[in-house]
Design goal:
Blueprint: H1 3-20, E1 29-36, E2 40-45, E3 57-66, E4 76-85, E5 91-101, H2 108-131, H3 134-152, H4 158-170, H5 174-178, E6 191-196, E7 203-209
Parallel strand pairs: 5-7
Antiparallel strand pairs: 1-2, 1-6, 2-3, 3-4, 4-5, 6-7
Helix pairs in contact: 2-3, 3-4
């Protein structure tokens, strides 16, 4: 092989490798659920990022579905992305595992902060119980839970969600021990935040807005 052919092949291999690796999950981006039939999920990128252009559609196949369980274990669906359809119609292959959850995992730092907050909350709860009594504490928590559930609920379901949150707070801490975790809403049009969950490259999708 002469040097001219060698450099041509080298250039072609570089161009090919760049085209294959042009898209990935390097940055956080928002997407909407375009469709989900229980087997195939399609996410449409709703804002341009360094990962994918706006309007690109990511296609994934379902691998495992873990329903919500007692002790507040959330519903989770594991997928694998295998294709991206670019705005111009061009298709490229992907190979990336992906977990869809109703709320984000906590990082090690967040877990540490949550432990501190929880410890402080328990101490505050104990003091409040001694000073003003448990009914007042439950009443405050009931109002907080009602407001939070109403904020998270889809339009038209806010009253029902607020009532559920109020009841959960009023019966604190029993519901936290026996209730199931949060259900995953895969309704078409819901907005999903997609980002790497850890340094291993695992990709996580979280429902951040319901339509």
């Amino acid at each position: 092989m002469n040097m001219k052919k060698f450099y041509i092949l080298l250039l072609l291999s570089i161009v090919y490798s760049q085209s294959v690796l042009a898209y990935g999950f390097d940055s956080k981006f928002k997407s909407t659920i375009e469709s989900y039939d229980g087997r195939t999920l399609k996410l449409k990128v709703s804002e341009a990022s360094t990962s994918f252009p706006e309007g690109a559609v990511l296609v994934a196949k379902e691998l495992e579905h873990n329903p919500r369980k007692h002790f507040l274990r959330d519903e989770k669906i594991n997928f694998e992305f295998y294709e991206v359809i670019l705005p111009d119609g061009h298709k490229e292959k992907l190979q990336q595992s992906f977990s869809l959850r109703p709320r984000s995992w906590m990082s090690a730092r967040q877990a540490g902060n949550a432990a501190i907050v929880t410890t402080g909350g328990v101490l505050a709860l104990t003091i409040d119980m001694l000073v003003v009594g448990l009914p007042v504490v439950r009443g405050g928590k009931a109002i907080w839970e009602a407001a939070w559930e109403a904020k998270e609920a889809r339009h038209g379901e806010k009253v029902k969600s607020a009532a559920k949150g109020f009841l959960t707070g009023a019966l604190f801490p029993l519901p936290e021990l026996i209730l199931k975790g949060k259900a995953l809403d895969t309704h078409e049009g819901n907005i999903i935040s997609v980002h790497k969950a850890n340094k291993k490259g695992n990709v996580l999708g979280v429902v951040i807005q319901k339509t």
